[in-house]
Amino acid sequence: xxxxxxxxxxFLQGEIVGNPDVVVSNVAKxxxxxxxxxxxxxxxxxSKYLYSTEASIILINKDLKLEKEIAPTLIKxxxxxxxxxxxxxxxxxxxxxxxxxxxLASIDKSAIVGKDNYIGEYACIxxxxxxxxxVSIYPQVYxxxxxxxxxxxxIFPGVKIYHDCVIGDNCVIHAGVVIGSDGxxxxxxxxxxxxxxxxxxxxxxxxxxxLGANTTIDRATxxxxxIRKGVKLDNLVQVAHxxxxxxxxxxxxxxxxxxxxxxxxxxxxxxxxxxxxxxxIGNNVIVAAQSGVSTNLADGSVVLGSPAxxxxxxxxxxxxxxxxPELRSRINEMENQxxxxxxxxxxx
Length: 348
Known about the structure:
Shape: flat
Number of domains: 3
Oligomer: single chain
Strand order of the largest sheet: 8-11-14-17-20-25-28-31-34-37-39-40
Structural class: alpha/beta
C-alpha cells in the first residue's frame, strides 16, 4: 500500500519540505533507507545519516536545524518518534485481517463467541467461555472453562488461558503466554515434605494490556492477580500469585515479581529486576536493571542495585567499588610505610 508525503503530513498535521507527491510503500531505519521507504530522525546521534540516506521521506522534529540541503522530502512534526509510531500503527491496521472460524477449531457448545472473529486451527474454546467481538485467536490457543475475553483482543499462537480468568478489551497476548497457572504455594510439613496449597483464585487482565512472549501470570491463591489497564509486560516476565500491577506500568524482560506485591501506576521496572513478595511499590517508581527490591518504595522513587537503594547512593557505591583496586594498593602502601616506621622506632 502506498502513501504520499501529502497524505502522511495531513495525518500527522506536519509541515512538508520538498515534494508533496513522493510516495512510499515501506519503512526503514534512517541508516538503511532506500527509495520508496519512510524513515525518521529523533536521536541526534543519527543526524549524520540525514545527509546520506536514500529514504524518500523522513520525519524530523520541527526544531531540528539542517546543516545543508538534503534530497529526501521532509515532514516536520512536534515529535518524530511519536509520529513514526502513529504511522506504524496506521500501517499495521491497514493490513488485511484474518476472519472466520477454522473447521479444525474446537468450540464447546456452551461457549459464547461474538461476531467478526478469527479462530485458527486447533484452538480450543472450553465450556462456559465467552469471547467478544472482533477477537483474533490464533492456532493452538487454549481458552479454559468460564474464561472471558473482551472485544478487539488478539491472542497469538500457543497461548494458554486457564479456567475462570478474565481478559479485557484491546489486549495483545503474544505467543507462549500462560495466564492462570497455579501460584507457587506449598506449606512445609514436619517430615520435610511440602503440601500443596490449592490456588482457587483467578487472573484479571484489564483493557489495553500487552503481554510479551512466554510471560507467565499465576492465578491468585484467593481473590485475583490483577494487571491493570494499559500495562505493558515484555517477554519472559514472571508475575506471581496475588500480585497487582497498576495502570500504565511497564515491566521489561526477565523480571520476576513475587507473590502479593503491589506495584503502583506509571512505574518502569527495567530488565532482570527481582521484587520480593508482599511489598508496596508506589506510583511513578523507576527500578533500574538487575536491581533486587526487598523493601517498600515510596511514590517517585528511583532505585538501583541489589539490594535496591536510591540511585544517588547506588552511584556513589558503584564509584567506590570501581576504585577498590586502587584503594587496596594505597592501603597496602600505607601499611608498609607504617611497618617501616615501627621498625625505625623500635631500633631507637
